[in-house]
Design brief:
Elements (H helix, E strand, L loop, with lengths): L16 E3 L4 H10 L4 E6 L2 E7 H7 L12 H4 L7 E2 L4 H11 L3 E6 L2 E7 H7 L1 H13 L9 E4 L6 E8 L2 E3 L1 H5 L2 E4 L5 E4 L3
Parallel strand pairs: 1-2, 4-5
Antiparallel strand pairs: 2-3, 5-6, 7-8, 8-9, 10-11
Helix pairs in contact: 5-6
């Protein structure tokens, strides 16, 4: 895949939006209904922030808060980091890396037209996955070591939590897999499959 192609060719045009006064419960129901992991929050029709499944799980559940008592403004990440529709995918990847985010709302002028996620990028091409991994590893602290989404290099399955092991992105199952092979009658040796 050509990483200089514009994000509009890779993005998802389906974006859930929510007014800042909407209830978190209703937004969560919309996210589930349309199988989306985020919602863009608007105020007076203008996008001002974003709420993700991760925000919900990390900012509500650990404190045992009741979702109906939490406002969107309290939960959302703001300011909203966005990208223009003509921005090259490679630039979008760099924006995600430098801001440690996985989603970029895509705009045409002042209009929200879609969203590009790390999942969109990885799903398009394994070549892009390799490029994304190289870019992330070049940043020093790899985002792949903390809940990075993508294809496992060992089993080829999609995972929401990849970890880099010996330069390979592995899902939890493959990372923890141990194969035992008898070396002699007195003991076994365990090793990771390459």
């Amino acid at each position: 895949m050509d990483i200089d192609r514009p994000v509009q060719e890779v993005m998802s045009p389906r974006v859930i939006t929510a007014d800042i006064g909407d209830s978190l419960v209703n937004i969560a129901k919309e996210m589930i209904k349309y199988d989306r992991s985020s919602a863009v929050v608007t105020e007076d029709g203008k996008p001002v922030g974003i709420i993700t499944e991760r925000d919900i799980s990390r900012k509500i559940i650990p404190d045992d808060r009741k979702p109906s008592t939490v406002s969107l403004s309290e939960l959302m990440t703001s300011p909203l980091i966005t990208v223009d529709q003509n921005t090259p995918v490679s630039d979008a990847i760099q924006m995600m890396l430098s801001n440690k985010i996985r989603r970029l709302p895509v705009f045409r002028n002042d209009t929200l037209i879609g969203i590009i996620t790390s999942q969109d990028i990885v799903a398009v091409s394994s070549e892009m996955s390799d490029t994304l991994r190289e870019l992330m590893e070049s940043e020093g602290e790899s985002l792949l070591t903390s809940d990075f989404e993508g294809m496992c290099d060992a089993c080829g399955q999609y995972s929401y939590n990849l970890t880099v092991v010996d330069g390979r992105s592995l899902c939890d199952d493959c990372k923890d897999a141990r194969w035992r092979e008898p070396t002699d009658s007195s003991h076994d040796s365990a090793y990771l499959e390459d």
